[in-house]
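Consider the tokenized backbone below.
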């Protein structure tokens, strides 16, 4: 019997890598995407090439009604959702807090924190054994930015990711007895197109000397950690966070 996974933000970067490796590991995959239909179509094709079922669902995770619809449709398409990766996110151009537009700050908090709270709420409502679910595993995507307190002009983003850290550990403890494991990853400097949105050209190359391993990471390196946390190999792991950061 196939395993099932729902990923938010699955058309690019870390989310796309998670979707592809999940298919490799025997998951049928549903994922949300915001607007990149062509990229979403390619991820669907890659999942299907691995012999698994795939469905891409356009969804604004900042809209609670669309989040509910996302979970409902994913379950209709691939069955009971036993694994969920709360990944979708955005970043802002690096700048001192005093120079970041208020609307940018509000959008970051809305997408990178509030939306994740709502998504995890919906996941728990469906997975919890006390509510008729079968249990499951959840992985959140935080960032080393939280641990570094937004160093380099990313305080709003780091603040949102710090909230993800609290959400992960707090919810993990709250639902541990209800058949749900909740863990989180804090990726460091990872080579994805999100780096281009920071406003810093060649950001990975410039910051690589500050990383003990001397290089940026890859999306697949993060995705491998996600798949381990979702698997039965991590059956006694919950309410905790892991750094995938090259020692930074």
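A designed sequence for it:
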């Amino acid at each position: 019997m196939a395993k099932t996974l729902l990923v938010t933000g699955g058309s690019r970067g870390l989310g796309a890598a998670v979707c592809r490796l999940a298919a490799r590991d025997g998951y049928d995959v549903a994922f949300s995407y915001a607007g990149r239909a062509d990229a979403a179509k390619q991820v669907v094709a890659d999942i299907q090439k691995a012999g698994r079922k795939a469905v891409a669902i356009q969804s604004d995770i900042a809209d609670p009604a669309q989040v509910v619809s996302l979970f409902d449709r994913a379950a209709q398409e691939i069955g009971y959702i036993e694994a969920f990766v709360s990944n979708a996110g955005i970043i802002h151009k690096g700048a001192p807090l005093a120079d970041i537009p208020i609307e940018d700050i509000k959008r970051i908090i809305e997408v990178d924190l509030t939306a994740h709270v709502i998504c995890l709420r919906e996941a728990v409502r469906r997975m919890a054994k006390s509510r008729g679910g079968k249990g499951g595993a959840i992985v959140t995507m935080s960032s080393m930015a939280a641990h570094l307190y937004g160093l380099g002009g990313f305080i709003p983003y780091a603040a949102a990711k710090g909230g993800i850290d609290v959400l992960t550990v707090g919810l993990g403890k709250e639902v541990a007895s209800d058949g749900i494991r909740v863990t989180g990853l804090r990726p460091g400097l990872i080579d994805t197109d999100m780096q281009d949105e920071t406003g810093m050209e060649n950001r990975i190359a410039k910051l690589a000397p500050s990383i003990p391993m001397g290089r940026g990471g890859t999306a697949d390196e993060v995705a491998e950690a996600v798949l381990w946390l979702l698997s039965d190999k991590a059956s006694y792991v919950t309410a905790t966070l892991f750094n995938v950061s090259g020692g930074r």
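Strands lie at 3-7, 27-33, 54-58, 83-86, 136-141, 180-187, 240-244.
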